Amino acid sequence: MVSALRSARAHLARAAQRLRGRSDPMLPLAAIPGMPAAFMPPGLDRAPTTAFPADTDRLNHQDRRDPVPASVPSADPPEVERYRAIWLSDIHLGTPGCQADYLLDFLKHNESDTLYLVGDIIDGWQLRRGWYWPQSHNDVVQKLLRKARKGTEVIYVPGNHDEVARQFDGLAFGDVVVREEAVHVTATGRRLWVVHGDLFDGVVQHARWLAYLGDTLYTLILALNRHFNRIRARLGFPYWSLSQYLKHQVKNAVNYISSFEHAMVEEARRRGCDGVVCGHIHKAEIREVDGQLYCNDGDWVESLSALVETMEGELKIVYWTTLRDPAQPVARRMRKSAATV
Fold first, then answer.
1. Which InterPro entries does the record associate with it (predicted)?
2. Which of 45, 144, 156, 165 is the most exposed place for a label (fewest CB within 10 A)?
3. Domain boundaries, given as residue ranges, for the chain
4. Which of these, 156, 153, 180, lies nearest to 166 by C-alpha position?
């Protein structure tokens, strides 16, 4: 009889706990209305210290005992600059020299009504020699496509390293339009001819083997540049282009750049434009050349630069040599990319 009463008491205790939504085995059974004293363990036949006059009060009391943790506040949204237009070129996705981390950080913090991709976005020359495509390069492509889907007008003007895309002139891939060249009108009414610029490079057009040889040597210099900046990053210094510094110390290279600039502005004048926006030579610059506006948006293997037009129509070069988002440490990403090769 005694064992039967104890078994019944245990079953009632568990049932009462489930009804009250509590799994705590130490709940005082005297708190359950109508519980016979015979089923209470010795010493628990007295009323509890805290009375629960109603189920609602018991729930309120439970809320006070076990408060729901406050939700973690979301991180502050990134600071974003807004422009009428942004020009990017010479990204060279598919090569170890591409500074994809810096470009992703730039794209995260800068928006525009129109985005021009001015050639050499993907390096087909390097990809034919050997496949190299880390996750960060895929992230850049996805980021550009996402901008197009969200309303940015994206115009892709191919260059010599991605010249295969020129056969699709006038076609749209999703929300990205391919153009062999374009004309941009600024807020102040200036007409700018937008083209990569390789068609005005005599070496590329008439000595292609020499262009390939130069590209191979340039790749070796960029490899040295990458190791150099890895050390700088560990020491806390911003990005600095050793390869660009060496290139600008060579007199022939300086003369070549000057000839290239004059050829570009002359062609822009012939087309009835007020200036030109190009890439190709990896030297960001805005200046007057022979009475015409010459703009080069630089690159994302050496100068880490973009050309932008403000809402008021001002043109300027933006250098992105320091990451704003610390969640993308360059040294770690570079080590991870190197491990996948």
1. Calcineurin-like_PHP (IPR004843), LpxH-like (IPR043461), Metallo-depent_PP-like (IPR029052)
2. 45
3. 2-65, 82-340
4. 180
